[in-house]
Write a structure and sequence with these properties.
Blueprint lengths: L13 E6 L3 E5 L7 E4 L6 H14 L4 E5 L15 H9 L11 E5 L6 E2 L4 H13 L3 H16 L7 H20 L5 H9 L5 H16 L27 E5 L7 H18 L11 E6 L2 H4 L4 H13 L5 E7 L7 H4 L4 E4 L7 H12 L9 H7 L4 E5 L1 E2 L3 E2 L3 E5 L11 H9 L16 H9 L14 H14 L10 H12 L4 H9 L6 H4 L17
Parallel strand pairs: 3-9, 3-10, 4-7, 4-8, 5-6, 5-7, 8-9
Antiparallel strand pairs: 1-2, 1-14, 10-11, 11-14, 12-13
Helix pairs in contact: 3-4, 3-8, 4-5, 4-7, 5-6, 5-7, 5-15, 5-17, 6-16, 12-13, 16-17
């Protein structure tokens, strides 16, 4: 195929990445098979990421990338014809042509880009537990809070909603624990609620406070991000480049990694199956990817592997960017077919292991000592192996990465401000909305605005005994103004549990509750692959 006359070196259906003895092209039709960009600090990973993002955008493929240091923001402004850029372009047979790309900046904190928000329900208990670094018991309690909130029709939108819900479920089990002479049936009902204790709830609340102090509170709320706003093209048919400003976000690595994982899970849930399209619908760059896998429990690792394996059929390509290939678990690494390896330094035994692991992942080239070459690569050089033909990896080649067409390095605050002002999503997310959700509904019950707030609990059997206990402990004639939110809602929980929580968990408990009770479970919660809730 003849190269386009734009001077970028791309061909129809391929992106020109660099050149050694042979040109290195990334095939668009195989770009959703995912990829990996690795190398030590200062070896050129960010420039390679920019070159790839430019190529995708020119081909009409939207891009999402996290900008850890601010350097990637230069893609929004035209490049400069500096001597080293002109020299490298000439060596590759290119005509340097300055270019810039339509860019939207996003920022979880809303300071250097449009705010990014998700509701607590969308995040789900699994990912939220990961974000809060909860243990198994605490995660179980969080699951109970989500379940009860869903069954009671209490939307969890922001952190104050979750706090109110946690306060609401604690009193039942706590009061059971304080009354040691209650019978076994009542204790069983409390266990069905997950053995929720004040101590466990208090620990979760403290972790929520830590997350809030780190700025996490601004992430949860409305208007929630609509991922379709990532999948856009500009008026020239080029893919929109979405950049997440992540310099401040990186001060909380767990929040950063969990946030990006949530985005992947939402994409997986929302996008339809498309098989293997001619080009991806979206390419997702996950920088500092090792943060995703550090100390990840097995259930989470299983879900990560599942999403990476299956999201390609949604037309999404995921490219992990990290220093060492050993940062990525083998079962995920096996899904990454397009590889760019910058230099690694073999100063320590771990470094030597990383070099050997990187060399072993490439298809051997008889003309190249891969392990030796990895330690000898200069800045801007890389070992490259992209998928070709029927999806088999090409032999590894040593190439020089082509120069970007846009600016190398960060933009100025004034330039960023102008880009944000002209954004296609200007005004859509910039103002937070505090809708009528769990906190407000619980407050209304406390103030007596909800009809039936004082209705008597269900009577008879196991659940009736629990309801009676709650009524006895809390009292039925206590003025509402003196009740806590948790006490008021505990009554509702006692009533709701009769047809929801206990019924839903009866099969696992194998105790008295079952049969007709199991068939009376109310709305069932439908959680996505990583705990996100499918919107109804």
């Amino acid at each position: 195929m003849a190269a386009r006359e734009t001077g970028y070196g791309d061909t129809d259906g391929q992106i020109f990445i660099g050149k050694g003895e042979q040109p290195a092209w990334l095939t668009l039709g195989l770009a959703n098979r995912h990829g990996l960009v690795t190398g030590a600090t200062g070896t050129g990973k960010t420039v390679t990421l920019q070159v790839m993002a430019e190529g995708f955008a020119r081909a009409g493929v939207p891009v999402f990338a996290a900008d850890i240091k601010g350097d990637l923001s230069g893609i929004a402004e035209a490049g400069e014809a500096k001597d080293f850029i002109l020299k490298r372009a000439k060596e590759m047979g290119l005509t340097f042509q300055p270019d810039q790309f339509s860019t939207v900046f996003w920022d979880v904190f809303g300071e250097q880009g449009h705010p990014v928000r998700a509701t607590v329900s969308e995040m789900g208990p699994l990912l939220l537990s990961r974000m809060l670094d909860l243990n198994d018991v605490q995660e179980g309690v969080l699951n109970v809070a989500f379940r009860v909130a869903d069954d009671m029709g209490l939307p969890l939108m922001d952190m104050k909603d979750l706090r109110a819900m946690l306060d609401a479920i604690a009193p039942i089990a706590a009061k059971v624990a304080e009354n040691g002479d209650v019978n076994a049936d009542i204790r069983q009902a409390a266990q069905a609620l997950g053995n929720v204790t004040k101590q466990t709830v208090g620990t979760i609340q403290r972790q929520l406070l830590v997350l809030e102090n780190q700025g996490g509170e601004s992430f949860f709320g409305e208007p929630a991000l609509q991922l379709k706003d990532f999948i856009r093209t500009d008026n020239q048919g080029r893919g929109l480049v979405n950049i997440l400003v992540a310099d401040k976000l990186m001060s909380n690595p767990r929040l950063y990694a969990t946030f990006l994982l949530w985005m992947l899970s939402e994409l997986f849930e929302e996008l339809p199956e498309v098989g293997d399209p001619e080009k991806p619908k979206l390419v997702f760059f996950f920088d500092e990817a090792h943060l995703l896998f550090n100390d990840a429990p097995k259930p989470l690792m299983d879900k990560i592997e599942q999403v990476v394996r299956l999201i390609r059929s949604k037309g999404v390509g995921v490219y992990f960017v990290t220093q060492n290939p050993i940062d990525v678990p083998d079962r995920v690494l096996a899904q990454l077919g397009n590889r760019v390896q910058h230099a690694l330094r073999a100063f320590t035994p771990r470094d030597q292991k990383a070099v050997a692991a990187a060399a072993d992942t490439f298809r051997p080239n008889p003309k190249l000592d891969t392990a030796k070459a990895i330690t000898e690569l200069g800045k801007g050089e890389a070992l490259v192996s992209f998928l070709e033909g029927n999806g088999t990896p090409a032999m590894v080649e040593r190439v020089m990465i082509r120069p970007p067409s846009a600016r190398i390095g960060p933009i100025t605050p004034e330039e960023r401000k102008a880009i944000i002002a002209a954004s296609p999503v200007k005004g859509k997310y910039d103002t937070a909305i505090d809708s009528d959700s769990a906190y407000e509904k619980l407050r209304d019950r406390l103030e007596g605005k909800t009809a039936g707030a004082d209705a008597a609990p269900a009577e008879g059997g196991l659940l009736g005994q629990l309801g009676s206990l709650v009524s006895t402990v809390f009292g039925t004639n206590t003025p509402r103004g003196k009740l806590t939110t948790g006490q008021v809602v505990a009554r509702s929980v006692a009533r709701t549990v009769a047809t929801t929580v206990v019924g839903g968990l009866a099969a696992e408990l194998g105790k008295k509750v079952g049969g007709s009770m199991g068939s009376s479970v109310g709305r069932s919660i439908v959680r996505g692959t990583l705990g996100g809730m499918l919107r109804r």
